[in-house]
Design brief:
- By secondary structure, the chain is α+β, with helices and mostly antiparallel strands.
- The protein has one domain (31-204).
- It is built from 5 helices and 9 strands; from the N terminus they run ααβαββαβββαβββ.
- Strands 2, 3, 4, 5, 6 and 7 form a 6-stranded antiparallel sheet that branches. Strands 1-9-8 form a 3-stranded antiparallel sheet.
- A hairpin with a 2-residue loop joins β8 (193-197) and β9.
- α2 (35-49) crosses α3 (65-75).
- The longest helix is centred in the first third of the chain and has 15 residues, at 35-49.
Length: 205
Protein backbone atom coordinates (compact mmCIF):
# COMPACT_ATOMS: atom_id res chain seq x y z
CA UNK A 1 0.00 0.00 0.00
CA UNK A 2 2.71 2.44 1.01
CA UNK A 3 4.85 1.49 -2.00
CA UNK A 4 1.92 2.00 -4.34
CA UNK A 5 1.19 5.37 -2.81
CA UNK A 6 4.80 6.51 -3.19
CA UNK A 7 4.88 5.33 -6.82
CA UNK A 8 1.66 7.16 -7.46
CA UNK A 9 3.07 10.39 -6.05
CA UNK A 10 6.25 10.04 -8.12
CA UNK A 11 4.41 9.27 -11.34
CA UNK A 12 1.87 12.00 -10.77
CA UNK A 13 4.31 14.68 -9.74
CA UNK A 14 4.95 17.37 -12.28
CA UNK A 15 8.51 18.05 -13.31
CA UNK A 16 9.80 21.52 -12.34
CA UNK A 17 9.61 24.05 -15.16
CA UNK A 18 12.81 24.27 -17.16
CA UNK A 19 15.12 27.17 -16.31
CA UNK A 20 15.24 29.53 -19.28
CA UNK A 21 18.72 29.82 -20.73
CA UNK A 22 20.53 33.04 -19.89
CA UNK A 23 21.38 35.22 -22.90
CA UNK A 24 25.08 35.22 -23.73
CA UNK A 25 26.94 38.14 -22.27
CA UNK A 26 29.01 40.37 -24.56
CA UNK A 27 32.71 39.70 -24.69
CA UNK A 28 34.81 42.27 -22.80
CA UNK A 29 35.84 45.12 -25.06
CA UNK A 30 39.43 45.25 -23.89
CA UNK A 31 42.14 43.12 -22.34
CA UNK A 32 42.21 42.88 -18.56
CA UNK A 33 38.43 42.64 -18.17
CA UNK A 34 36.58 39.38 -17.51
CA UNK A 35 33.10 38.33 -16.48
CA UNK A 36 34.69 35.98 -13.97
CA UNK A 37 36.29 38.91 -12.14
CA UNK A 38 33.09 40.96 -12.43
CA UNK A 39 31.01 38.12 -10.95
CA UNK A 40 33.56 37.63 -8.17
CA UNK A 41 33.17 41.20 -6.95
CA UNK A 42 29.40 41.08 -7.47
CA UNK A 43 29.23 38.04 -5.18
CA UNK A 44 31.27 39.83 -2.51
CA UNK A 45 28.96 42.85 -2.66
CA UNK A 46 25.87 40.63 -2.39
CA UNK A 47 27.40 39.02 0.70
CA UNK A 48 27.84 42.45 2.29
CA UNK A 49 24.27 43.48 1.44
CA UNK A 50 22.60 40.27 2.65
CA UNK A 51 24.19 40.12 6.07
CA UNK A 52 21.71 40.27 8.98
CA UNK A 53 20.92 43.77 10.18
CA UNK A 54 22.94 44.64 13.26
CA UNK A 55 25.53 41.95 12.54
CA UNK A 56 28.32 43.71 10.62
CA UNK A 57 30.96 41.46 9.08
CA UNK A 58 34.40 41.26 10.59
CA UNK A 59 37.80 40.55 9.15
CA UNK A 60 39.36 41.56 5.84
CA UNK A 61 38.21 41.25 2.22
CA UNK A 62 40.47 41.78 -0.79
CA UNK A 63 39.29 43.37 -4.05
CA UNK A 64 41.70 43.14 -6.95
CA UNK A 65 42.24 45.74 -9.64
CA UNK A 66 40.87 43.26 -12.20
CA UNK A 67 37.70 42.67 -10.17
CA UNK A 68 37.10 46.40 -9.74
CA UNK A 69 37.59 47.30 -13.41
CA UNK A 70 35.59 44.32 -14.65
CA UNK A 71 32.67 45.10 -12.33
CA UNK A 72 32.59 48.78 -13.31
CA UNK A 73 32.91 48.23 -17.06
CA UNK A 74 30.83 45.04 -17.44
CA UNK A 75 28.32 44.64 -14.59
CA UNK A 76 27.62 48.39 -14.25
CA UNK A 77 28.02 49.24 -17.93
CA UNK A 78 24.39 50.32 -18.27
CA UNK A 79 24.42 52.38 -15.07
CA UNK A 80 27.48 54.50 -15.72
CA UNK A 81 27.04 58.24 -16.43
CA UNK A 82 26.04 58.89 -20.04
CA UNK A 83 29.04 59.19 -22.33
CA UNK A 84 31.57 57.64 -19.95
CA UNK A 85 33.56 54.82 -21.54
CA UNK A 86 36.62 52.62 -20.98
CA UNK A 87 37.02 53.45 -17.30
CA UNK A 88 40.37 52.18 -16.06
CA UNK A 89 41.22 52.26 -12.34
CA UNK A 90 44.82 51.71 -11.23
CA UNK A 91 45.65 51.04 -7.60
CA UNK A 92 49.02 52.14 -6.26
CA UNK A 93 50.31 52.51 -2.75
CA UNK A 94 47.84 54.86 -1.04
CA UNK A 95 46.78 56.25 -4.43
CA UNK A 96 43.98 55.85 -6.95
CA UNK A 97 44.45 56.61 -10.63
CA UNK A 98 41.45 56.76 -12.97
CA UNK A 99 41.45 57.20 -16.73
CA UNK A 100 38.98 56.82 -19.58
CA UNK A 101 37.15 59.02 -22.02
CA UNK A 102 33.87 60.90 -22.08
CA UNK A 103 31.52 62.22 -24.71
CA UNK A 104 31.93 65.85 -23.79
CA UNK A 105 28.87 66.97 -25.76
CA UNK A 106 26.71 64.75 -23.51
CA UNK A 107 28.69 65.67 -20.42
CA UNK A 108 28.25 69.41 -21.03
CA UNK A 109 24.46 69.15 -20.47
CA UNK A 110 25.00 68.46 -16.77
CA UNK A 111 28.09 70.57 -16.19
CA UNK A 112 28.02 73.84 -14.27
CA UNK A 113 28.11 76.87 -16.61
CA UNK A 114 31.48 78.18 -17.76
CA UNK A 115 32.49 81.55 -19.11
CA UNK A 116 33.22 82.01 -22.85
CA UNK A 117 36.95 82.44 -22.15
CA UNK A 118 37.22 79.24 -20.11
CA UNK A 119 39.26 76.64 -22.08
CA UNK A 120 36.60 74.03 -21.27
CA UNK A 121 34.12 75.97 -23.42
CA UNK A 122 36.12 75.00 -26.52
CA UNK A 123 36.12 71.23 -25.87
CA UNK A 124 33.87 68.81 -27.73
CA UNK A 125 33.53 65.23 -28.93
CA UNK A 126 35.13 62.28 -27.13
CA UNK A 127 37.89 63.45 -24.80
CA UNK A 128 40.26 61.45 -22.59
CA UNK A 129 40.49 62.23 -18.90
CA UNK A 130 42.74 61.18 -16.06
CA UNK A 131 42.53 61.70 -12.32
CA UNK A 132 44.98 60.96 -9.54
CA UNK A 133 44.45 61.22 -5.82
CA UNK A 134 44.51 59.60 -2.42
CA UNK A 135 41.79 57.82 -0.50
CA UNK A 136 42.29 58.43 3.20
CA UNK A 137 40.22 56.41 5.64
CA UNK A 138 40.30 55.94 9.37
CA UNK A 139 39.08 53.32 11.80
CA UNK A 140 35.89 55.30 12.46
CA UNK A 141 34.44 54.29 9.08
CA UNK A 142 34.82 57.60 7.25
CA UNK A 143 36.82 58.37 4.13
CA UNK A 144 38.16 61.44 2.40
CA UNK A 145 39.44 62.04 -1.14
CA UNK A 146 42.46 64.22 -1.81
CA UNK A 147 42.91 64.99 -5.52
CA UNK A 148 46.42 65.65 -6.78
CA UNK A 149 45.76 65.86 -10.50
CA UNK A 150 42.70 66.22 -12.75
CA UNK A 151 42.88 66.65 -16.51
CA UNK A 152 40.26 66.64 -19.25
CA UNK A 153 41.95 66.43 -22.63
CA UNK A 154 44.53 69.22 -22.71
CA UNK A 155 42.87 71.17 -19.88
CA UNK A 156 43.88 70.91 -16.23
CA UNK A 157 40.75 71.05 -14.06
CA UNK A 158 40.61 72.91 -10.74
CA UNK A 159 39.48 70.57 -7.99
CA UNK A 160 36.59 72.93 -7.17
CA UNK A 161 35.24 72.64 -10.73
CA UNK A 162 35.70 68.85 -10.68
CA UNK A 163 33.70 68.75 -7.44
CA UNK A 164 30.88 70.74 -9.06
CA UNK A 165 30.79 68.32 -12.00
CA UNK A 166 30.70 65.20 -9.82
CA UNK A 167 27.95 66.68 -7.65
CA UNK A 168 25.91 67.48 -10.76
CA UNK A 169 26.36 64.02 -12.33
CA UNK A 170 25.57 62.13 -9.12
CA UNK A 171 22.27 63.78 -8.18
CA UNK A 172 19.45 61.36 -7.40
CA UNK A 173 16.03 61.54 -5.75
CA UNK A 174 17.57 60.17 -2.57
CA UNK A 175 20.52 62.57 -2.78
CA UNK A 176 19.40 65.72 -4.66
CA UNK A 177 22.64 67.52 -3.78
CA UNK A 178 24.83 64.85 -5.36
CA UNK A 179 28.08 63.47 -3.99
CA UNK A 180 30.51 66.00 -2.52
CA UNK A 181 34.06 64.77 -3.22
CA UNK A 182 35.52 67.50 -0.99
CA UNK A 183 33.74 66.37 2.17
CA UNK A 184 34.33 63.29 4.35
CA UNK A 185 31.88 60.47 3.63
CA UNK A 186 30.78 57.35 5.47
CA UNK A 187 32.14 54.11 4.04
CA UNK A 188 29.48 51.62 2.85
CA UNK A 189 28.68 48.19 4.30
CA UNK A 190 29.92 49.09 7.81
CA UNK A 191 33.51 49.24 6.59
CA UNK A 192 36.02 50.57 9.09
CA UNK A 193 38.83 51.30 6.66
CA UNK A 194 39.93 50.86 3.03
CA UNK A 195 43.62 50.42 2.34
CA UNK A 196 44.89 51.06 -1.18
CA UNK A 197 47.79 48.82 -2.12
CA UNK A 198 49.45 48.09 -5.49
CA UNK A 199 46.89 46.17 -7.53
CA UNK A 200 44.27 45.72 -4.81
CA UNK A 201 42.00 47.22 -2.17
CA UNK A 202 42.04 45.83 1.37
CA UNK A 203 38.64 46.23 3.03
CA UNK A 204 38.77 46.12 6.83
CA UNK A 205 35.53 45.41 8.72
Amino acid sequence: MVTAAVLGLLLGAQAPPPVPPQPPRPAPARAGLSWQDADSLDLKIQTFEKRPRGAPPSGTVLVTEGELNSYLNLTLAGKMPAGLRDLDIRLDKDRLLAAGDVDFDQMRKKMPPTGPLNPIAFLGGRIPFDLRGRLITSQDGFGNLEFEHARLGPVSLPVSFLAQCVASFSKTQENPQGFDILSPFRLPYALKRVRVQPGRLVLDF
